[in-house]
């Protein structure tokens, strides 16, 4: 049976696992992501981990899910933000092939998570769906007819930078009014802080989404108002995605998706009320189910099927 060494590279942790071709996790763990010379340290750590797997198991291929813009054909990082220093330009596939002789397949983290959900998670038995991740920003990935849709130059799925308000807030991408400026978890936190300051309420500068959600559950009026507005923004973006792609299913990941049934009940209710009935009646918004394992499962599937 084939075994795949799988990695999911994030700005904080690198999650890794040995997974067999049936999708059974033989071993998994995580390590802190290096913060210096990532072009050297990250592939070197991957080789070290693969060698440790090889001490007790066969390793047939390598799959990598990673933050940043990826050229999956070349297996290299086209661009990575400053939280992964010097990672831009890293030739992951070439490095591992030269060192270990193993074919290595690399994909963007959101795309890999969608593939993981398609194989072993909420997207099983679904030919068409869109994955949307609500976090510091908003990521997206599109599955059409059971295959990842990447677009003409590999950039499809950047839903976080679709425009909600052309005269809106400036975004880090250089645009204005982007979806993620209104509907990401970080925007939810920012909107609560801004509103609390207006009301002259003291707010801990380190307050996070989880603590604000506790205020929501406790009936805090300001938190409830900000949360309702946040949900409206989330739904507006999801309606736009639906009108273009009509996926039938939208899978939501990211930390806030752990809010569970009430969160998804509210999203579906607002979506059905706001969208045209010809879409609202058959579109379902559901939670991702693989949580922190989505990336490594996606990396495994990509390697098994040699998806470039």
From TrEMBL:
MF GO annotations: glucokinase activity
Keyword annotations from UniProtKB, A to Z: Transferase
Entry's EC annotation: 2.7.1.2
Similarity field: Belongs to the ROK (NagC/XylR) family.
Name of the gene this protein is made from: glcK
Alphabetized PROSITE patterns for the sequence: ROK
Class of enzymatic activity (EC top level): transferase
Keyword Transferase included in the entry's annotation: yes
UniProt cross-references to Pfam families, sorted A to Z: ROK
Protein name, UniProt field: ROK family protein
């Amino acid at each position: 049976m084939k075994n795949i060494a799988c990695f999911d590279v994030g700005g904080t942790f690198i999650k890794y696992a040995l997974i067999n071709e049936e999708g059974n996790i033989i071993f998994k763990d995580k390590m802190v992501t290096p913060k210096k010379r990532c072009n050297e340290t990250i592939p070197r750590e991957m080789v070290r981990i693969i060698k440790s797997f090889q001490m007790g198991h066969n390793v047939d291929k390598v799959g990598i899910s990673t933050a940043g813009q990826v050229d999956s054909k070349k297996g290299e990082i086209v661009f990575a933000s400053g939280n992964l220093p010097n990672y831009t330009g890293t030739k992951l596939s070439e490095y591992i092939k030269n060192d270990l002789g193993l074919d290595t397949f690399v994909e963007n983290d959101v795309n890999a998570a969608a593939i993981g959900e398609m194989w072993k998670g909420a997207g099983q038995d679904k030919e068409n769906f869109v994955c949307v991740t609500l976090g510091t920003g908003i990521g997206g990935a599109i599955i059409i007819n059971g295959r990842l849709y990447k677009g003409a130059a590999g950039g499809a799925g950047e839903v976080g930078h679709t425009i909600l308000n052309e005269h809106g807030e400036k975004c880090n991408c250089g645009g204005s009014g982007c979806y993620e400026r209104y509907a990401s978890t970080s925007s939810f936190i920012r909107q609560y802080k801004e509103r609390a300051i207006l009301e002259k309420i003291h707010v801990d500068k380190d307050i996070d989404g989880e603590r604000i959600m506790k205020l929501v559950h406790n009936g805090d009026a300001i938190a409830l108002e900000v949360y309702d507005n946040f949900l409206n923004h989330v739904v507006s973006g999801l309606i736009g995605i639906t009108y273009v792609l009509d996926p039938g299913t939208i899978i939501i990941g990211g930390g806030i998706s752990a809010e569970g049934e009430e969160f998804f009940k509210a999203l579906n209710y607002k979506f059905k009320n706001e969208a045209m009935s010809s879409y609202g009646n058959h579109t379902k918004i559901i939670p991702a189910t693989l949580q922190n394992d989505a990336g490594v499962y996606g990396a495994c599937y990509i390697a098994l099927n040699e998806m470039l």
